[in-house]
Amino acid sequence: MQQAVKAFARFIPKSPKCFPEANHPPESDALSLDAAGDVSLASKINDEKPQSSPRKRYVSFINLIIYKRMKAYIILLLVGLWLPTQAQTDAKPASERLVFTVVEQRPEFPGGMEKLAQYLDQNLRYPEAARNAKRKGRVFVTFIITDEGAIQDAHVLKSIDPELDAEAVRLVSSMPNWIPGKQAGRPVNVRFNLPIHFKL
């Protein structure tokens, strides 16, 4: 075998001049002689870095846009799920939320207790039937002053007469917003009791 290889090697010229294209090998596959003398197929190795085609760049750009839009959609979806839950929480009446009876800063009627007394005197409507029956006394009304100062859940705590009770609840419910009470520096819901005097 070695003698055959040596005999074949004699016919291979040693000078590259016999191959005009030796210094510029074609881009197609070429024949080469390995160390054992066998002829093998050698592929050309391209040392240049591969460049991305315009199609690949376009696809990458489209994928980036899709990713950003999907991210925005997910954020909007999460916000959309959170807002109704928050709205339901805020929509609950104060009686179903945390209500304080004692706070660091008590709620206050605009202008103070003197203005509250003026409001009660000016807006009290003595029921005619109760007046004729000479019914009088004090009706205690309990209500909640919300963290926004609104009046909610007004009802009679101590009753003396159905007509007087109804007028006391109406009077309290129609009050303007109070200055809300505060606990730890934050407005909170506070339950408040108020006597309404009916005098003849």
TrEMBL record:
Places the protein is found: Cell inner membrane
Superkingdom, natural source: Bacteria
Gene3D superfamilies tied to this protein: 3.30.1150.10
SUPFAM superfamilies: TolA/TonB C-terminal domain
Keyword annotations from UniProtKB, A to Z: Cell inner membrane, Cell membrane, Membrane, Protein transport, Transmembrane, Transmembrane helix, Transport
Membrane topology category: Single-pass membrane protein
Spans through the membrane: none
Principal location: membrane
Domain TonB C-terminal: 111-200
The family this protein is said to belong to: Belongs to the TonB family.
Protein name as catalogued: Energy transducer TonB
